Amino acid sequence: MRKILIVGAGQSGLQLALTLREHDYDVTVMSARSPEEIRRGRVMSTQAMFHSALQTERDHGLNLWEADTVRVEGLGVSIAGPDGSRPLDWFAPLDHYAQSVDQRVKMAGWAELFEERGGKLILHGVTTADLNGLAELYDLVVVAAGKGELVGLFDRDTARSPYTSPQRALSLAYVHGLAPRPEHPTAPGVRFNIIPGVGELFMIPAYTLSGNCDILFFEGIPGGPLDCWDDHPKPDEHLRRILDLIERFLPWEYERCAKVELTDAHATLSGGYTPVVRRPVGNLPSGGAVLGMADVVVANDPITGQGSNNAAKCAASYLDSILEHGARPFDQAWMQAAFDRYWASAQDVTVWTNALLQPPPPHVQQILGAAQANPTVARRFVNGFDNPSDFQDWFLDPEKAAAYLASV
């Protein structure tokens, strides 16, 4: 039986561990926190998982909260005018619903499920020195912890990493009591509010420890009015500040917030990170090699909501690569090939995400404007969040965009 060590207990690491157990691999997961510590801790992310990624969970019986979680039926785009108006505002349905489960719920539940299915869960923070000794005990070591010392094992890929600093200041709060958008009161949807020159507000229906909720998530351009979190306010002040900013820039969304309250005492988060692509093979001082996965090697800004989707797709891709490799050694050539297989689709997400971090060029403005009048355009844009590769065919290139708009 082949022995595999996975360092990190997030979406990608636990999904890979659980699916490998289906094939009787001897799998160990190392996590810095216990399931109960995860549940009692601070929220870790936003997440909006679309159909393709959700299907990977269904295929392996990992969709434990699907029946209870609010269904995200569509996505809407609004652009704020300087006077608080909405020069652009539309909503379009997804072909298949999306969902968002608080990672405190999911990762704690999956870690327990992993042990129930015969996996070994070791509660211990891992350093490079630890890995140096552990690697020789396993046929393969996968690093799925996207933060901390171990990320330093993987060199930045300069050709694929145009940014050298965070492109947004991030802040969020999980809340109960948000009223529905009056334009689609019975169809819960992600609202993508653009404040030109300032940043974005996403409002995401979700499921948390206390049931269904919403996430208020600001992405602020560095140095602007949304970049105001360096003092790390306490939760109540954090929420008040978010609401003040919504009132200032997006009055139509503020009208929905009259009764909002935090879902729990750990329901706020702020920070930022640099979008980066890293080389997938990490070399240990001993000469051993480890494989990076998901946001260890491809970390995109969350402006396109692809983090958990990428993680799920990376886990599915790595699973296929491992199973197909059989009993042969997991050498560095195989590690690079496994990453290249994943990158074949992940690169489209990276290109699209990096493009959205810049001011929208004229052809993108034309697309968003056309979507307001033409449901076909709106629906294609919205469903691209499930299939980002489609954006290469019409959204990212001015000539292809013009041809598409002319055709519809």
Name some characteristics of this structure.
about 400 residues, six-stranded mixed beta sheet, alpha/beta, 16 strands, 12 helices, eight-stranded mixed beta sheet
In summary, what is this structure?
With 408 residues, this protein is an alpha/beta fold. 35% of the residues lie in helices and 22% in strands. It starts with a strand and ends with a helix.
What would the principal axes of the Cα set say about the shape?
globular
Tell how many strands the DSSP assignment holds: 16
Q: Helical stretch count?
A: 12
Structural class: alpha/beta
Order of helical and strand elements: EHEHHEEHEHEEEEEHHEEEEEEHHHHH
Q: Give the end-to-end Cα distance, rounded to a whole number of Å.
A: 55 Å
Give the topology, please.
Elements: E1 3-7, H1 11-21, E2 26-31, H2 35-40, H3 51-59, E3 72-79, E4 88-98, H4 103-116, E5 120-123, H5 128-134, E6 140-143, E7 169-176, E8 189-195, E9 199-208, E10 211-220, H6 235-249, H7 251-254, E11 261-262, E12 268-271, E13 276-277, E14 281-283, E15 289-292, E16 298-299, H8 307-325, H9 332-356, H10 362-373, H11 375-383, H12 398-407
Parallel strand pairs: 1-2, 1-6, 2-5, 3-8, 6-15
Antiparallel strand pairs: 3-4, 7-10, 7-11, 7-12, 8-9, 9-10, 13-16, 14-15
